[in-house]
Amino acid sequence: MNTHHNGSARPPETHLSAGEITSLPAMGKELLADARSTDSGSSGRAARTVVTLPGLRVTLIALATGSELAEHEAPGAATLTCLTGRVTLHTTDRAWPLGQGDIVAVPGQRHSLTAETDATVLLTVRPA
Questions:
Q1: pTM for the whole thing?
Q2: CA-CA distance, 115 to 126, in Å (whole number)?
Q3: Which domains does the chain have, with CATH numbers?
Q4: To which H or E segment does residue 95 belong?
Q5: How confident is the prediction along the chain (128 residues), in pLDDT tens digits per residue?
């Protein structure tokens, strides 16, 4: 659960302000439950933007086993950190398997992401 300094619940759509702390593992569990839910129409994935600052966006993404983020352009300089599970980042000519704790600089070309197991990843982007 996201909390303010005083412990009150934070609405899920609200981004953190400077100095606020949230639990990524707890948020990841919530998002994985949403990603696995057949009622949510999630296509096996769910995401929440955690931080938005000038020149920086941090998004937590949960992917159910076998789900994919289809090929897309890089939105700017980015890193992808695998927090739980296993994922593979693909370009047309290369694949990067990531496990818990692994980080990769996202290539500046079209790429996709596949969940080899239930997984949560943290995407950090400096928009172009």
A1: 0.84
A2: 24
A3: 24-127 (2.60.120.10)
A4: strand 95-99
A5: 333 333 333 444 457 777 888 899 999 999 999 999 876 566 899 999 999 989 999 999 999 999 999 998 887 899 999 999 999 999 999 999 999 999 999 988 899 999 999 999 999 999 87
